[in-house]
Amino acid sequence: MIEELVPDQLWSRVQPLLPARPPRRSRYPGRLPVDDRAALAGIVFVLKTGITWRELPHEVAGCSGVTCWRRLRDWSEAGVFNAVHELLLDQLRALDRLDLNTVVVDGSHVRALKRGAATGPSPVDRARTGTKHHVITDAGGIPLAVTVTGGNRHDSTQLIPLVEALPTIRGKRGRPWQRPRWLYGDRAYDYEHHRKALRERGIIPRIARRNTGHGSGLGKVRWVVERTFAWLHQYKRLRTRYERRADIHLGLLRLGCVLICYRQLPTSF
After folding, report:
1. Contact present, 67 and 241 (Cβ < 8 Å)
2. Once rounded to an integer, what is the mean pLDDT over residues 240-256?
3. What is the rounded distance in angstroms from the CA atom of residue 117 to the CA atom of residue 84?
4. Nearest alpha carbon to residue 259 among 221, 233, 220, 226
5. Residue 224: CB partners within 8 Å, gap ≥ 6?
6. What's the rounded Cα separation, in Å, for the pair 90 and 54?
7. In this structure, are strands 182-185 and 129-138 parallel, antiparallel, or unpaired?
8. pLDDT digit string (tens) for 33-86?
9. How many Cα neighbours within 13 Å face the side chain of 55?
10. Distance of alpha carbon 261 from its chain centroid, rounded?
11. Where do the H-state alpha helices sit in the chain?
C-alpha cells in the first residue's frame, strides 16, 4: 500500500528535501519515529479519500492519522512541498513539458465545513462559509503557484500575489525562467491597475473586458485552468475544506500540485 501511494520515483524526489530529524537521546530515547515514507503515504491517502485523520486505517501506512497530520504540519512549515513542486517543474521544463510563454489565472470556491483562517461567507453559495483556491498555470494547465483566501475575497485580489509567487524554473542551460510573456484571465481581473502592474513586470495582459459580449476567443486559452481545478478537486480533501488551519489546507493543496506535476513525467524518468 505504501509503495502504491508513494511510488519509488516520487519518493526519490521527496526524501532528499525532507528536514533532518534531531538526534535521538542516548538515554531513554523513547519510541522510534514513524518512517517518513509511511507518513507521506498516510497523508496522500487522506488527500485522495477525504476521510478524517483519526479514521486513517492503520494498515494503510502503519501509523496513526494524528502522526501523519503532525508530519504534514512540520513539512508545510519547512516548505517541503514547495521545494518538491519546484523540482518537478524544473524536470518538466528540461523535458519540454511546459509552455511558459503563457500563463493562465483563475479562482475556484470550495465549501469550508469548519470555520478557521482564510474562510468567509461565499457570495456564490448563499453566504455559507467557504474558501477560495487561486491557481496560476502554464499554457497546458500545469499548476505553477497556488494561494488560499476566504470565500468572500474577490479573485482579482490574488492576481499580483500569484504572479509574485511564480517560482524560478530551471532545467535548461542558460538563464532560468522567471516571468511569462502573456497572462490570460477572465472578467474578474478586468482592472486597469492590474494591467498596469503586469506591464510594469514585462507581462502582456490578455484579460477579458467586462460588459462586452462573449466570443473574444480568450476562452480557447483559458479553459486549461478549469481542467486544473478538476485535477485538484478530484482529491476529496480539497473538494471540501475540513481543516481549521489555513496552513494545513494550503499544504494539502500544494501536495495536490506535486502529484499533478509528477503524473506529467514519463514513467522512466
Report:
1. no
2. 96
3. 25
4. 233
5. 104, 137, 139, 140, 141
6. 36
7. unpaired
8. 889 999 999 999 999 999 999 999 999 988 999 999 999 999 999 999 999 999
9. 7
10. 10
11. 2-5, 8-14, 36-49, 58-61, 65-77, 80-94, 159-164, 192-200, 219-233, 236-239, 246-263
**Phi, then psi, of 116 in degrees rounded to 5:** 175, -170
Q: Count of residues for the chain? A: 269
| DSSP notation for 97-139 | ----SEEEEEEEEEEBSS--TT-EE-TTTTT-EEEEEEEEEET
Is the Cβ–Cβ distance between 144 and 167 less than 8 Å? yes
Evaluate whether 173 touches 131 at the Cβ level (below 8 Å).
no
pTM of the predicted structure, to 2 decimals: 0.94
Helix 36-49, helix 65-77: angle, nearest 10: 100
CA atoms of 32 and 137, how far apart (whole Å) = 41
Place of cell 524554473: 169
* Helix 219-233 vs helix 246-263: crossing angle, to nearest 10: 110
Query: Which is nearest to 142 in space by CA: 238, 256, 47, 8?
Result: 256
Cα(29)–Cα(43) distance, integer angstroms: 26
Nine-digit cell at 136? 496560476
